[in-house]
Amino acid sequence: MRTTVGIVGAGPAGLLLARLLHNAGIDSVVLESRDRAYVEHRQRAGILEQGTVDVLRAAGAGERMDRVGLRHDGIELRFARRRHRVDFPALTGGRSVMVYAQTEVCKDLIALQLEEGGPLLFETEALAVEDAGTDRPRVRFRRGGPEGVEEVLECEYVVGCDGFWGVSRKAIPAELTRVFERTYPFGWLGILADVPPSHDELVYARHDRGFALLSMRSQSVSRLYLQVPEGTDAETWGDDEIWDELERRFETDDDWKLERGPITQKSVTPMRSYVHEPMRHGRLFLAGDAAHIVPPTGAKGLNLAVGDVVTFARALTHQRQTGSSDLLDGYSETCLRRVWQAERFSYDMTTLLHPVPDATPFEARLQLARLERIASSRAAETDLAEGYTGFPFG
Ligand code: FAD
Ligand code: DHB
Fold this sequence. Notes:
Elements: E1 2-8, H1 12-23, E2 28-31, H2 36-41, E3 47-48, H3 50-58, H4 63-68, E4 70-72, E5 74-79, E6 82-87, H5 88-92, E7 97-99, H6 102-116, E8 120-121, E9 124-130, E10 138-143, E11 150-160, E12 178-193, E13 202-206, E14 212-216, E15 222-229, H7 239-250, E16 263-277, E17 280-281, E18 284-286, E19 292-293, H8 301-322, H9 326-329, H10 331-353, H11 361-376, H12 378-389
Parallel strand pairs: 1-2, 1-11, 2-8, 5-13, 11-18
Antiparallel strand pairs: 3-7, 4-7, 5-6, 9-10, 10-11, 12-15, 12-16, 13-14, 14-15, 16-19, 17-18
Helix pairs in contact: 1-6, 1-8, 8-10, 11-12
This protein binds flavin-adenine dinucleotide and 3,4-dihydroxybenzoic acid.
């Protein structure tokens, strides 16, 4: 098999890249180890930055998002039993975010790719990226499980969009690589519940017992998260216990009330910051979680993946149109500038809102002082609003 761009992984990064290349008249083949249903139902991110919304629309993938997605003009910060709303458009010159789940973005892009685009092969596992440093990189892959036969995809470029656990990153020689990493001593217990959201915008709550987040998937489905100790097994939390704990952490001095409903899914997400430098080696480019991870506070992961593939698609289009590989050569530097801003933002949001297990009273007071500063200074609040609605692409 032969193609211009071999794409490893059909998460948001790989699927959007295939769409952007198709629109630019560049052919690609996408290899995805899991089946279609798994990719379409894996519960993950929920918030799209303004820039991501604009990219999906321009790519012709925004029709359903514009119909059923929920535009949000702000979030609420909750601390010391008080509520403070951050008004995004007022602070950022009109920017907002969209509540539209990663599952739905993937469904839309898969449908478009199968209908109009190049091959998208499910249950096809990349085993290794080879000859990345040459003009003819290859992906060795296998279809149909461990019994399947090995095949080779010959490419002009390979883009590794295979997430944190993928194989692409391993093709960059260790001696050329630097990794920057931090883990956190807590995770998020996430639930989906069949109950209308108790607030019309997201609520980020800091409480001495731990962080809590109220989000949503639609007008009738709530998504909620609780900070839990690292390594927690979701099954050790009973449904009533989860609702009781959420209620405590969201408590306010007014008459706000948390509505309960049947919990349909629960799982624990670990928290990690991770950056792999560089994001390019020869003709292999890394995009999305394959190159970097942020803790979920502030919802940057999916949006960063979008920024990377937009940068790659622009650079390759530029090369095709002008013959200049300047933008491809600058891919890693261009992406990493935005990645590090998102790393900083996600770290700030995480440390602002999560009490660490052995926090001293001094650290607890500092968190409250940081929140107080955001609630009372337009400059501090603008910094949060700009970060949340997103940093520019490219
Ligand atoms: P992925 O979505 O991980 O896609 C990679 C794809 O590659 C997968 O489909 C995988 O099956 C495939 N693959 C892997 N190895 C191979 C191989 N060898 N061959 C072929 N295919 C392969 N972000 C938020 O903003 N908010 C959240 O609440 C949030 N929750 C998350 C919860 C979890 C459990 C995880 C893991 C991430 C979460 N994220 C969240 C982050 C966000 O979902 C990711 O940043 C986003 O999915 C990145 O997209 P991606 O396409 O780079 O990678
Ligand atoms: C969601 C996840 C996040 O990490 C976040 O900051 C906001 C919302 C969500 O899954 O809805």
